[in-house]
Amino acid sequence: MNSIQYDFYGKKFCYMGRHSEFTPEIKRRFEQRDKGTAICHRISFYLMSMGLQNALNYFIKNPECLDGNTLAKSSCSYMIGMILAVTGKINGLSDERINMLDHFMGIRDDILDKYKPLMGEMFGVLKFLGEQSITEEQVHWLMLGVEGYVNRILDYLNNEPYNLRLGMASWNASIGSAFDIFENYETEEDQFRLSEGDSKVITLLKHTTLGGGENFDKSYLYIYTAEWQSQTFIYNSRLDIPLSAIEPEESEKPILYFDYIDQKFREFRE
Q1: CB of 101 closer than 8 Å to CB of 119
Q2: How far apart, in whole angstroms, are the C-alpha atoms of residue 208 and residue 75?
């Protein structure tokens, strides 16, 4: 079974749960020597899946708004946004969304190179779907191809070292689909302030990927914060507090990150 599947009756792509494994190379690189550890994602598997799924559903829901070429490029640009966020490649950004695919294909980068053939094939199929009048049976077979491409991209994303680390299994499970802060952050009296790496990833997610809902206006990007015994902290997979020993309450303290596109600090929950 694929993690993202096309629903031929509902005419949309749907998340079917995680059906992607870590490669032997990743398992060796992040060897779990200690009991209670796990390989953890900064951007959760669910959020990666939603970003790709929503990019494809954007294509399906907007056939009247844009010509086939522009619509296909826009849809691909949202998928590329997730690829850049997971790999941390902020240099992959283009000044305009419509140019994102061309810019991405022109970047010389060993990490990004494996995605280029898949994105090229994806664009070709979406462009054909957007420009041609074809039968339902033809749509069926073409969407099966798209489903194959998007799940191969998701498998690559699932195994990107930049988005992985070894952490505590209990905290990783508690974080669930939320964002896992990978770097040290500042805890001030009235706010949290995220570091450069996490800020860059959040910048990419907020500017270049799609949320959910009918108008893609529901954000799947969230972070858990907590208060316990006069301490405030952000949930992350490297916390050294035994999860079973505390009963934290949610903290209302704002989280600030530096937006590398707008070049200013923003509140995460904006």
Answers
A1: yes
A2: 11
3-state secondary structure of 23: coil
The 10s digit of each residue's pLDDT in 145-184 is 999 999 999 999 999 999 999 999 999 999 999 999 999 9
pTM, full prediction: 0.95
Q: What's the angle, vertex CA 72, arms to CA 70 and CA 78, rounded to 5?
A: 105
Domain ranges for the chain: 4-15+33-162, 182-267
Which of 100, 103, 84 shows the shortest CA–CA distance to 260? Answer: 84
Tell which residue, 60, 94, 57, has the closest CA to residue 77: 94
d(CA 77, CA 83): 10
Neighbour-count burial for 78-89, b at 16+ CB within 10 Å, e otherwise = bbbbbbbbbbbb
